[in-house]
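Response to reviewer comment R2.3. The reviewers asked that we include at least one raw input/output pair. We reproduce the pair for Lipoprotein here without editing.
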Amino acid sequence: MTRLLTAFRTTAIALLFVLLASCASGGAQSNKLDQAQYAWSGAIRWGDFEGAVNLIDPKVREKLDLTELQLERYKQVQISSYRDVGSSTNFDAGTAVRDIEIGVINRHTMAERTVRYREKWRWDADAKAWWVTSELPDLWDGQ
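Raw output as returned:
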């Protein structure tokens, strides 16, 4: 009985160490995701769309080809709210998705409306960073 109890304890301790190691790596990745999402939402919330572009995946960013006119269009709106309405993360696959509701005010007409936006994120193991793989939100959504 003592031998069985010792074997059980040893196995339990080994499993505990494996679980702690996996939590530590997922924890660091989770913290980096929180930081990246905070930086992204802050940039959008405060109208720093040029700064937000720097958080877009470099592969996506080089294809964006944003013109001055497109960036000027973002200066015509004020963001009144930025709300996470649902999210999911798969750390094993290195992906995350957040559904966002953005309050947008047209600076010229002072009319406010709500736009839905889906953020898609990718973990870059080499850079140890999360990148947005979706483009800047379309604040005009067909307008």
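The longest strand covers residues 77-90. Residues 2-132 form a domain with the Nuclear Transport Factor 2; Chain: A, fold (CATH 3.10.450.50). Further pairs are available on request from the corresponding author.
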